[in-house]
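Everyone, carefully examine this protein record:
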Amino acid sequence: MKAIILEAADQPFVLKEVTIPELSDDEVLVKVKASALNRRDYWISIGKYAGIKYPIILGSDGAGIVTKVGNGVNNEWLGKEIIINPGYDWGTNPAFQGKDFKILGLPDDGTFAEYVKVKAKCLFSKPTHLSFAQAAALPLAGLTAYRALFTKGKAKKGDKVLISGVGSGTGTFALQFAISAGCHVYVTSGNEEKLQKAIELGAKAGVNYNDPSWMDKLLSLNDGFDIIIDSALGDGFVNFIDLANPGGRIVFFGGTAGNIPELNARKIFWKQLQILGTTMGTSEEFENMLAFVNQYKIIPAVDCILPLANATEAINKMAESTQFGKIVLVDE
């Protein structure tokens, strides 16, 4: 089968012919119709991720058709159009992942290939209103955004939501999910085009965080926010304490801009704020996320669709952070 191989850090991906993986009793073989990139793939490609091994087939997100099942798997899956929950073995406590939790694409070979093997329990029916490319955009970022917004942020109709750094896969899903839930959504970005695209998707307004007065501009648009979703941390995080309404929730799941500076903790306890970390989500949350997508017929924002052989071009585009939504690979 064809596969995109990462042989070492900071090296271009290589398209190779490799052996189709053999199945254990609880696994299935999926013909990958489309896969999608995540920021995780980029960090692995430059050697800045825990537990890296080479060579590796990256890719956590995928949609396709089941072509073979293990001896312990129901044959009803054969021929089904599916998407994959890339989170394996969450554990018994829904509040946090257990020590056996892992994500498809490292340490196990992932979806940047013609075929991928996955555990049958990680299969879910592809939403019928989505193409394979649209469905492939959904799993990791959609699950992360869903848990951040609803499980941690407890979003409900009428809440005022701020999404920092809209344009990423997670940020775009958080925007779409919050709007569908009846929230009033505002966004920030360092790119004016991304702000405009977010407004076209339903954001009330957007502010460029490169503007020194970005926080004042947000407060002039809206008195404060019940929920703030962030994936960057960095120096700007300190402003969220002032932007949050009393009783507000600040939820984050990334740190691309570095560590958090010193915070005024007095404001945190006096305003009764919650600062909540989150990662991925449970199988039940994945199922609930899909139900939500089906209910509101949400169509993921796909920035571009590239041939599988163009994986290096795709990862370079992610490195530049020019995309709005997801970058998808298809096997042509």
Observations:
- The chain has a mean pLDDT of 95.
